[in-house]
Amino acid sequence: MRQNPTLKKIAEKLNISISTVSRALKDHPDVSPDTKKKVNELATLIEYDPNPYAVNLRTHSSKEFAVIVPSLSNYFYHSFISSIEEEARVYGYSVIIYRSSNDPAIELEILKSCRHKRVSGIFIAITAQTKNMEPFLKLDVQGIPVVFFDKVPNYESCNKICVGDAHAAELAAGEILRKGKKHVLAIFGDQNMSITKARLERFTACLDSSNEKILLNVIYASSSEETEAKVLKILSAGIKKDFAVFCMSDEILAGAMKAIQRMGLKAPEDLGIIAISDGMIPQIFYPEITYAETSGFKLGKLAFGRMMKCISGSSFVQTIIDESVLVSGGSL
Amino acid sequence: MRQNPTLKKIAEKLNISISTVSRALKDHPDVSPDTKKKVNELATLIEYDPNPYAVNLRTHSSKEFAVIVPSLSNYFYHSFISSIEEEARVYGYSVIIYRSSNDPAIELEILKSCRHKRVSGIFIAITAQTKNMEPFLKLDVQGIPVVFFDKVPNYESCNKICVGDAHAAELAAGEILRKGKKHVLAIFGDQNMSITKARLERFTACLDSSNEKILLNVIYASSSEETEAKVLKILSAGIKKDFAVFCMSDEILAGAMKAIQRMGLKAPEDLGIIAISDGMIPQIFYPEITYAETSGFKLGKLAFGRMMKCISGSSFVQTIIDESVLVSGGSL
DNA sequence: CTGAAAGCGCTTACAG
DNA sequence: CTGAAAGCGCTTACAG
């Protein structure tokens, strides 16, 4: 087992002190150009890199961000993480990714580990069951900034970067009206989730405010399978003219599409389809599904900006809502 | 900024030495039960947790595994990672996930960081362009075991855990024959990739060895869009009786399905469809697509087993091929 | 411009 | 059974 090069080794070879080597390497003004040159040359030659554990022990800072998400198999989180990594690289930070598996106990363990590792900051989408804010407050006390994104707590006094649920719902509802649909089946997720509430409220409000008389049928489903079963039953009863299906999420869209395909129905001829989505699932179908986009990439940029503000000492908190964009497929 | 509790703090409060506290906490036989009890109680009370940087600096071991993948938005990798995490938890290791974005330069940086952090081991699916084995050899010299999975190098002397490409292709070909298909359109990815070669070779061999006369049309496409365009062209020319489409990957399946939907064709009536897949995409369609499964979960278990062997000192290397399983949807 | 020294928080051989 | 001491690799105030 070969040892990594250390300051000591460089110092010995060059017959100077460790202190000087350390300073030379960080381009300290006190060190003579000559010494700097010698040190840097040798360091490059033997591929010196500071031991991050020693540095951290000394300085209490890690130059590492943690991103904690419930799941990885999710295009939205994936693009969020890409976005954070892209920015982090620019500022010389690295990013470590943790997966809570939607389990509050695992989440807690991860948070603890982040605290002990004194990460520079944490981006987190909490689990559906996360209730206890204490671990987050503890982080705060230790000066580790936390930026919540996507799945955020109700707790007021924290940084939250969210998808514009209401705005996305509004875009979708508006498009349904514009296309002259009169019968709408709207499928929402778990009624207790805040995003369900936000999307539902604005969606119905928009349809209500229309001059046209819209017949709205709202149902709830908490899984792809449940969606499929419920939609199948409804479609079997027959389809009205100017009919449209709205799916509040990708999971629901997947279930609804299965029922629709199963019935042999085609969009946009037989019915219109529109969803709120990150854009992955809609592209798999022909015609592509029209959707109001919730972009992880844009959210990442916003979250990173907020994080850097925190790190530079700003103590005030903020909730940022990202507006979404309508992406037209041919399904409506 | 509150300080984390340290051994020193416990020692002071209890009026004993740091050494004793340290020993008590790790249940060292030398320490009296009485002292142990006192120490442990106080430690729990003030939520003591050892500073991982200090421990590592002292012991040179991190109890952390790194998983490096080209991309996260991939159900296969997601289930691989889940699997590794599950096992790691049992053995008291934590897992950090890195994303190379399929960029050899980023990959190199990650490897370097893993080396400096002295992670306990690395699981890696390399980028398509990774050619240089030197960084991996360097890791080896430092006693950091590397287990390659899925995308592995050609280099002989290393641990590789792979999907059974040939076996999966064989399963798919066998199923096509069993269903009495006579005309087969087989779509493969980039011809230079080793998995393409392996899958292609066995697939054609299986069909060739049949007593029936099979008309096989092999095409290549390196993206979903390219697949869609090519398949569309072929399907437009008309479909023979007993026709089946084979897709070597999810990406290709997605493209092919778009073309098939676009043509208004239905499986299994108009044509049969079969793929090699991790199981995510096939489930979105109705009927679900029949596929030879490449399970990230099972691969993870195998990889973890290999890793633990390495850690326990075994120096011999091994290539493990995971067999796949046929999952029947209704598409063939 | 350079170096000796202290200390970050821990572990462990050594001495008692 | 307990403690003093050295040391992991680094940074930085202090002294020269």
What does this structure look like?
The structure is a homodimer of 332-residue chains. Chain A has three domains: 44 residues, Orthogonal Bundle (434 Repressor (Amino-terminal Domain)); 133 residues, Response regulator (Rossmann fold, 3-Layer(aba) Sandwich), CATH 3.40.50; 129 residues, 3-Layer(aba) Sandwich (Rossmann fold), CATH 3.40.50. Chain A is an alpha/beta fold and 332 residues long. Chain A is built from twelve helices and twelve strands. In chain A, the strands form two sheets. A six-stranded parallel beta sheet of chain A has the order 2-1-3-4-5-11, with helices on both faces. Chain A has a six-stranded mixed beta sheet with strand order 7-6-8-9-10-12. Chains A and B meet through helix 4, helix 5, strand 2, helix 6 and helix 11 of A and helix 4, helix 5, strand 2, helix 6 and helix 11 of B. Chain A binds a DNA duplex (16 and 16 nucleotides) through helix 2 and helix 4.
